[in-house]
Specification:
Elements lengths: L2 H10 L4 E3 L7 E3 L2 H10 L7 H14 L8 E5 L4 E7 L7 E7 L5 E4 L1 E11 L2 E10 L6 E9 L2 E10 L7 H5 L2 E6 L15 H14 L3 E4 L3 E2 L15 E5 L21 H9 L5 H21 L3 H31 L20 H9 L1 H27 L5 E6 L8 H5 L8 E5 L9 E5 L4 H6 L3 H10 L5 E4 L7 E6 L6 E4 L2 H14 L3 E4 L9 H7 L3 E5 L5 E4 L13 E4 L8 H6 L1 H8 L6 H25 L22 H10 L5 E5 H4 L27 H4 L3 H14 L1
Length: about 725
């Protein structure tokens, strides 16, 4: 590899080599074209040696050509920032002040300044000073002003706690609750897809059974015009909620007679095995349009005042979302290729043409705002039930690692994402060709230039009504595998890990939200230790708790980490009963993830060994239900052991982990999975499975009762 190009890549945080997550940790070398691509996207040309040399000089000089950086992310007890000044100003009188963004208070900052480094650039001499702040500052964000002689310089100071928020109930207890997909909840009152009223009612189920936490799939808004694109991890915006979760009959403007003539359709939606997004979502939108007109015409000044307050509070981001959805709805009928294929004047939300369009389409724009207004109101009602029932954690939301390319987030602020590329994953044992998710990935340089505001907004939005937050693919705080659109392989892009961790810690503290990180996969050395120091909980699943990797014996519960959120599996993994019979292997072969019958048969043989290992671990633990002991060895998965779910749930729940999450799919012995990663809905009905028991019937369901009792016996 060109050594100068490698040097530039190292400085820009573009990995020139990386290893996969397979057992042999195969090494990959990043090709030079990929490095040049990402260097240019970060503002550094690298096509020729001359350009590379110029870019190296540009990189070295960049900090010396601005007095202050756009943001300084520091920790309490170690507050400092640097100032670059011409030598001619080295004796200038410096005063520092800050305005708190939390309360608007102006603070005069006591500080002392020391010179640390000097450099000459284009015959001008500069000195970099370190300014150490002696004034104690509360956690939060401050607009920083530095006065040198008669000049004032501005920046943002982000003051982080040394650790993320600590909930004493979590730190001192062994709590448990449920992990569920909200859309999958069945009830005798919903319209064929779980909604916020179902969530409110499930809070009561959780509380009545002794649980304190409800883990949820990402609740963010998905594609309005293509409701069949149902993956909660491919959102239009991570700042707002999916309107499909609105309970139409709970909207204040709803009247019982509105249902006339469609009761049969709704009953069919409820009874369908698979969620019919293409029918349910348009029906809900049709109703919301009717209710919006009623909202506008009815004399209800209090509710209209609440709507106006909501729009003001959510401000520019809500407006951009609503305008985007209005434009998209109109143009998707005639323009193929998403917002990048729109007329040029509509590709930038700040273009005067977009403002004019919003004014001429104000009614529709406000309708989309109304959808969010009602979704937020109903989610707030579910959160209020958490408070009423005194759940110690409450909702445990899930923050997706990225956002769809054809999304309001990218349209609203395209510069903050790396253009012409998308996030994915490198090759591994499950996906030898890697995974090309196509998700928008932050440009680390632009993200910092914007004082991390895009990240802060996303963190804050997903901590709303939330006692704990799961950060999907938490390694993205340090690095993210990004692939150019015209390639199948990419490389890792590095982020300022310290800054990213501290931003998470600030938001965790301000929102009183515990943080956990999903770190299954390709985990860098020392990464988990860094999370632990910052009080970010790890996640653990039964299938990865092995003595020697994925093929080893199952660990006994005593070996599990204490500072973790633990479950049997995840939404991407086969439920226990499906795993036991190997139906997931058949599914993977049918979807051609398993390439041939020979590999499939090898997987079946490995599964047979794993069944023996799991039975052995359960036998050793002594956690089989007393009235349902193991009867035989169930050779080749010929039967599902009576009491299997109870034994496994008790086995994992008995671990020392601070939080255990029980999955309804395992409790109710579901033998189909929610999501088969790497395939579309044409090969597997991803994100469409319903729980087989209505919420109203859970408390009286024998399997539910037995499993909850098994968990409570070991969890307390």
């Amino acid at each position: 590899m060109n050594e100068k190009l490698k040097s530039l890549a190292d400085k820009l945080g573009i990995l020139t080599e990386y290893y996969d997550a397979g057992q042999d940790h195969k090494r990959y070398e990043t090709d030079e074209d990929t490095i040049r691509f990402f260097a240019e996207k970060q503002g550094y040309r690298a096509d020729t040696d001359k350009e590379i040399e110029h870019s190296l000089v540009k990189f070295e000089n960049r900090r010396w050509q601005e007095t202050l950086e756009p943001v300084y992310v520091t920790e309490q007890g170690n507050l400092n920032f640097d100032i670059v000044l011409p030598v001619s100003q080295k004796d200038g009188i410096v005063s520092v002040s800050a305005v708190s963004r939390q309360n608007g208070q102006t603070l005069n900052i006591a500080s002392h300044i020391t010179a640390s480094e000097e450099r000459e650039i284009n015959r001008k001499h500069y000195i970099r000073h370190t300014c150490t702040i002696d004034t104690a500052l509360e956690v939060g964000y401050y607009d920083l002003s530095v006065v040198v002689d008669d000049k004032t310089y501005k920046s943002v100071l982000a003051v982080a706690p040394t650790r993320c928020y600590e909930n004493t109930a979590v730190d001192n207890g062994r709590l448990w609750g449920y992990a569920l997909q909200l859309y999958s909840l069945k009830s005798r009152r919903n319209w064929g897809v779980g909604d916020f009223t179902d969530l409110k009612n499930f809070v009561d189920v959780c509380a009545d059974s002794g649980g304190d936490i409800i883990g949820l799939n990402p609740l963010n808004i998905l594609e309005h015009n293509y409701p069949e694109n149902a993956s909660p991890y491919l959102s239009v915006s991570r700042l707002f909620l999916n309107p499909i979760y609105i309970d139409i009959e709970n909207v204040p403007e709803f009247k019982a007679e509105d249902l006339s003539g469609i009761e049969g359709d709704i009953e069919d939606f409820r009874n369908a095995e698979i969620i019919q997004y293409e029918k349910i979502y348009p029906l809900k939108i049709k109703f919301m349009e009717k209710l919006y007109e009623r909202f506008l015409n009815e004399n209800n000044p209090e509710r209209q005042k609440e709507f106006a307050a909501f729009c003001e509070r959510e401000g520019a981001e809500l407006n951009k979302l609503a305008v985007f959805l209005t434009l998209y709805e109109e143009r998707c009928r005639t323009v193929w290729g998403g917002w990048r294929a729109w007329e040029e004047e509509y590709r930038n939300p700040y273009n005067p043409a977009v403002k004019k369009y919003a004014e001429t389409h104000e009614h529709r724009v406000n309708f989309y705002k109304f959808l969010q207004f009602e979704a937020f109101r109903q989610f707030d009602l579910a959160a209020a039930e958490v408070g009423r029932r005194n759940l110690k954690i409450g909702f445990y939301r899930d923050l997706a690692v990225g956002v769809g390319q054809d999304s309001a987030e990218l349209w609203s602020d395209p510069d903050v994402f790396i253009a012409g590329s998308g996030a994915g994953a490198p090759p591994d044992a499950f996906f030898p060709g890697g995974q090309k998710w196509g998700l928008g990935a932050f440009n680390p340089f632009v993200l910092k230039a914007k004082a991390y505001e895009p990240l802060i907004k996303i963190m804050r939005a997903n901590m709303r009504n939330t006692g704990a937050l799961r950060i999907d693919h938490v390694m993205s705080l340090m690095r993210l595998y990004v692939i150019p659109n015209d390639k199948t392989l990419g490389t890792y892009i590095m982020y300022n890990f310290s800054d990213m961790l501290n931003i998470v810690a600030i938001e965790s503290h301000l929102n009183k939200c515990v943080v956990a990180g999903e770190s299954l996969g390709n985990v860098p050395d020392g990464f988990l230790e860094a999370l632990e120091r910052k009080n970010i909980y790890s996640l653990s699943v039964l299938w990865s708790e092995r003595a020697a990797g994925w093929g080893g014996d199952f660990n006994q519960p005593s070996a599990y980490q204490e500072k973790s959120f633990t479950s049997v599996g995840t939404h991407d993994m086969a439920p226990l009963k499906m795993w036991w019979f190997g139906y997931d292997i058949a599914d993977s072969r049918k979807a051609e993830i398993i390439p041939n019958d020979e590999v499939m048969n090898n997987n079946y043989h490995e599964r047979e060994m794993d069944r023996w290992k799991l039975l052995s671990a359960l036998d050793q633990s002594g956690l089989w239900p007393q009235d349902r002991p193991r009867q035989n060895n169930y050779i080749y998965g010929e039967a599902y052991p009576e009491g299997m779910a109870e034994a496994v749930n008790a086995f994992v729940a008995s671990c020392p982990s601070r939080v255990f999450l029980a999955e309804l799919e395992n409790i109710l012995e579901v033998d189909k999975r929610q999501n088969l990663p790497g395939v579309d809905r044409d090969k597997h009905p991803n994100w469409r499975r319903k729980i087989p028991v209505d919420i109203e019937d859970l408390a009286g369901n024998e399997m539910f009762i037995r499993n909850i009792n098994a968990i409570r016996r070991v969890r307390g």
